[in-house]
Amino acid sequence: MTTHTLPTKAVSTVDSRRAARRRGDRTGWLFASPALIVLVALTVGPTLYLLLSSFSRVELFGGQSEFVGLGNFAAVLTDPEILSSLLATLVFVVVAVSLQMLLGLGLAIPLSAKVRGSGPAAALMLLPFAVAPAVSALLFRQLVNPNYGWVNHYLGALGVIPADLDWLGRPATAWLTVLGLDVWQWTPFVALILMAGLQSLSPEVLEAAEIDGASRWQAFRHVTLPMLTPFLGIALVLRTIQAFKTFDSFQVLTRGGPGNSTEIVNLAIYRIALQSFRIGAAAAVGLLLLVLLLALTPVLLRLVGRRGDNEEA
């Protein structure tokens, strides 16, 4: 048997390349380390503090913290106000995200057509999404003001509502206000994702469906919608997570009122932590919300994927 050995020069070249690659890797990690340190400090650090605090009775203004085990979780899971805020959050997320998905799809279909005016219309659609949530909430608060708000003025002149209707003074109308604000602000986000998905679809497939005699509705239901499923899943998951994190609009508009009828779980965490100073209980609620989101995300993706498979079948 003949053994082939590399020439000394070739071996030296390979070794030098490996050494250069290792030096490049070390240099890359060195340049990336400041960003990694900041990322760990802003994500892993607070998460560990949240986890430790949820099992302790934390004294915010000095004093000795006390380990209470699952005591905080038992307290929050038996607190009717926290359970009510969790239920309010779930209802808000389901209603708001459902409306945004439907309206976003309805806006994306005409805007995805490459016709004159679709570009400026898409740019205008970005305006609500570009405004900060707190600023949008302040704007809506002025619009529904019973004394000088435009909503009461024009709808009252048309006889649709009483001219002195206090939108934020009644639970039903307060919910309509915060839902209207959220739908107005985040529907463009969904529409942009779905518009990008529609514009990426192959026109040959739709033309083939048209040649086969499919109506517009049949082509949309059996061809366009299944192909749009990945984009629907992305929009649904991102909006659901963001809706669970909603705080600004409720804090500016209603602060959980009237009473605690619009208190969602994030307002409850704020109240428990920074008004009642029960840091451990607030950390337990935050951790439960995190677990809920981690469990809900794969369920939503599976649900959208299964719907797409059914449509294709």
TrEMBL record:
<dbReference type="InterPro" id="IPR050809">
    <property type="entry name" value="UgpAE/MalFG_permease"/>
</dbReference>
<feature type="transmembrane region" description="Helical">
    <location>
        <begin position="183"/>
        <end position="202"/>
    </location>
</feature>
<keyword id="KW-0813">Transport</keyword>
<keyword id="KW-1003">Cell membrane</keyword>
<protein>
    <submittedName>
        <fullName>Sugar ABC transporter permease</fullName>
    </submittedName>
</protein>
<feature type="domain" description="ABC transmembrane type-1">
    <location>
        <begin position="86"/>
        <end position="300"/>
    </location>
</feature>
<feature type="transmembrane region" description="Helical">
    <location>
        <begin position="86"/>
        <end position="109"/>
    </location>
</feature>
<dbReference type="InterPro" id="IPR035906">
    <property type="entry name" value="MetI-like_sf"/>
</dbReference>
<dbReference type="Pfam" id="PF00528">
    <property type="entry name" value="BPD_transp_1"/>
</dbReference>
<keyword id="KW-0812">Transmembrane</keyword>
<dbReference type="InterPro" id="IPR000515">
    <property type="entry name" value="MetI-like"/>
</dbReference>
<feature type="transmembrane region" description="Helical">
    <location>
        <begin position="279"/>
        <end position="301"/>
    </location>
</feature>
<feature type="transmembrane region" description="Helical">
    <location>
        <begin position="27"/>
        <end position="52"/>
    </location>
</feature>
<keyword id="KW-0472">Membrane</keyword>
<feature type="transmembrane region" description="Helical">
    <location>
        <begin position="223"/>
        <end position="241"/>
    </location>
</feature>
<keyword id="KW-1133">Transmembrane helix</keyword>
<feature type="transmembrane region" description="Helical">
    <location>
        <begin position="121"/>
        <end position="140"/>
    </location>
</feature>
<comment type="similarity">
    <text>Belongs to the binding-protein-dependent transport system permease family.</text>
</comment>
